[in-house]
Specification:
By secondary structure, the chain is an alpha/beta fold. The chain has a single domain (4-160), classed as Rossmann fold. Helices cover 43% and strands 18% of the residues. A five-stranded parallel sheet has the order 3-2-1-4-5, sandwiched between helices. Helix 4 (93-109) links the parallel strand 4 (85-90) and strand 5. The termini are far apart. Bound molecules: coenzyme A (COA). The site of coenzyme A has 24 residues, from strand 1, helix 1, helix 4 and helix 5.
């Protein structure tokens, strides 16, 4: 049976940590949706369209990866699109409680849906999109944090404000 997974997130903006998780998922599963979603507790810096475009360029060459966005519940989207599992990166123990809550809630909403955690690689353990935004907006070097092909566009947006 074809195995389809989804990597959800705000991706505001995409980082090398996200790309690492997406690339590893693409090797393990037949099809990977990368879903740019709304986290209602955050006010984004990049528009959904910008985030999708940056992600699309970052994953260029990964044939089985598709960038999507939708409003509403992740669990419902997975049911409608026959997604078998959510794949997320775990950076540190501090991620665990929140991720555990989301995994349980998604399973309650869609009992067929599994959540799979990949350990973040050691280079991404400390990374987050808000860290990239803060360093980039203050003129710091973010070249070790974001994919090279989208670096200039991210810097351009962060320093324009
Ligand atoms: N490498 C680098 N950074 C990573 C990472 C990795 N492997 N994994 C996560 N991060 C960062 C993210 O960039 C994010 O950084 P930020 O807080 O600075 O923006 C942070 O860790 C948290 O990531 P995550 O837990 O994935 O949160 P998110 O806001 O990116 O995504 C959604 C949360 C969008 C998946 C969730 O809100 C959702 O599913 N929304 C849809 C509506 C829904 O179904 N709600 C019910 C959920 S139970």
């Amino acid at each position: 049976m074809k195995k389809t997974v989804i990597c959800p997130g705000s991706f505001d903006p995409v980082t090398l940590g996200h790309l690492d998780v997406i690339t590893r998922a693409a090797k393990m599963f037949d099809k990977v949706y990368v879903a740019v979603l709304v986290n209602s507790s955050k006010s984004p810096c990049f528009s959904i369209e910008e985030r999708m475009e940056l992600l699309g360029d970052a994953v260029n060459g990964l044939e089985n990866v598709e960038i999507v966005s939708f409003e509403g519940l992740l669990a419902e989207y997975c049911r409608e699109h026959e997604v078998n599992a959510i794949v997320k990166g775990l950076r540190a123990v501090s991620d665990f409680e929140y991720e555990f809550q989301m995994a349980i809630a998604n399973k309650r909403l869609n009992p067929e849906l599994e959540t799979i955690f990949l350990t973040a690689d050691s280079d991404s353990m400390y990374l987050s999109s808000s860290m990239v935004r803060e360093i980039g907006s203050m003129g710091g070097d973010i070249s070790n944090f974001v994919p090279a092909c989208v670096h200039d566009r991210i810097v351009g947006k962060l320093t324009k404000k």
